[in-house]
Task: inverse folding
């Protein structure tokens, strides 16, 4: 028995492949997987313990879209922290923003419908569109996507355009005027603008991330995705959300009811406590990444064989472009096997040539310095 034919066209996730190579190469330092280095706020643990002792309905099913208390508190958070206008939208609580994206494209796409993904895209987005039976349309519109190039890719089958800001994998922050232009483009063509904002709190300079959901009148054609995985160190709790036009909610609850049924109630208690801890808690943690980012910038400030594709002003990623005869997949494997340093292959993000994603969330201080030295030595030897 074989799987459905469409799965033959779906890429193998790069993170498990990289993890297998790391496991086979003891002593490897990883600049690969995107993981926040902190644990959740202490209030989260207290809330979980309290819920286990005091919530008599914890073991029962909850509402498909999420508990109303969490949805109300999340709406307040989104309005206060990101200026998203939720008044004309609905909020769906999901098991992380990956699941939110997958639910949205399942609700949007009939077989063969298209979703435009500016390159570099997040690899799970491309995979989710294919799993939903849709066709991902990868557009080389620039690291800061050119709205005109995106418009040229629109066809009669296009249903949505996706943006990720701050960007995974590049670390770029898409400027507000560009996001406004893409959002208006979607409105003109009757498309949905799916805005992935998992790293919305992560920025290191004057330019701050902006949500298209904050634009006046955008609620009817904009989906804003978010998560507590990175900002609150809660990847294992699997809490994310989608702020969606009301017309999509019926289809989305059908998707959720056949997969998750409803978000885990215990994890929703944890999410409420995380939001109550306040944005200052997150900002203090994120500020600690600035020194790591500076180490990365310093490692690529000269005549090394690799260069940063763009200024990594958000998230905790950077793209390293290398003049090298190897493919990105080959370069990833040889850096691990021969130089004991791991980065994710850029081919998974739709990039061409020998390009790698570097994540500085996992290592700090001397470990990060050692990993960057190994990387520079490996790139010199392999290029």
Result:
């Amino acid at each position: 028995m074989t799987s459905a034919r469409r799965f033959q066209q779906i890429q193998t996730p790069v993170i498990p492949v990289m993890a297998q190579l790391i496991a086979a190469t003891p002593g490897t330092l990883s600049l690969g997987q995107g993981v926040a280095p902190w644990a959740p706020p202490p209030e989260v643990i207290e809330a979980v313990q309290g819920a286990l002792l005091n919530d008599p309905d914890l073991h029962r099913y909850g509402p498909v879209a999420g508990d109303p208390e969490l949805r109300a508190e999340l709406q307040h958070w989104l309005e206060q922290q990101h200026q998203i206008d939720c008044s004309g939208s609905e909020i769906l609580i999901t098991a992380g923003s990956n699941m939110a994206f997958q639910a949205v494209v399942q609700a949007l796409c009939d077989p063969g419908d298209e979703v435009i993904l500016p390159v570099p895209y997040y690899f799970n987005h491309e995979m989710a569109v294919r799993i939903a039976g849709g066709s991902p349309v990868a557009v080389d519109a620039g690291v800061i996507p050119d709205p005109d190039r995106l418009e040229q890719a629109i066809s009669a089958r296009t249903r949505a355009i996706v943006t990720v800001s701050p960007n995974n994998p590049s670390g770029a922050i898409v400027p507000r005027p560009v996001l406004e232009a893409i959002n208006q483009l979607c409105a003109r063509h009757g498309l949905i603008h799916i805005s992935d904002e998992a790293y919305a709190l992560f920025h290191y300079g004057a330019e701050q991330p902006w949500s298209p959901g904050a634009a006046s009148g955008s609620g009817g054609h904009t989906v804003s995705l978010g998560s507590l995985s990175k900002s609150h160190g809660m990847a294992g709790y699997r809490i994310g959300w989608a702020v969606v036009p009301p017309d999509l909610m019926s289809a989305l609850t059908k998707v959720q009811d056949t997969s998750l049924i409803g978000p885990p109630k215990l994890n929703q208690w944890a999410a409420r406590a995380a939001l109550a801890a306040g944005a200052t808690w997150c900002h203090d943690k994120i500020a600690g990444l600035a020194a790591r980012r500076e180490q990365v910038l310093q490692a690529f400030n000269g005549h090394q064989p690799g260069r940063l594709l763009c200024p990594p002003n958000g998230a905790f990623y950077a793209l390293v472009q290398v003049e090298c005869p190897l493919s990105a997949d080959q370069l990833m494997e040889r850096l691990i096997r021969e130089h004991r340093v791991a980065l994710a292959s850029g081919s998974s993000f739709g990039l061409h040539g020998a390009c790698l994603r570097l994540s500085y969330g996992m290592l700090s201080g001397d470990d990060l310095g050692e990993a960057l030295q190994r990387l520079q030595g490996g790139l010199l030897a392999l290029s």
Summary: The chain is about 40% helix and 15% strand. The first helix runs from residue 14 to 23. The longest strand covers residues 158-164. The chain has two domains: 5-39+285-382, 42-277.
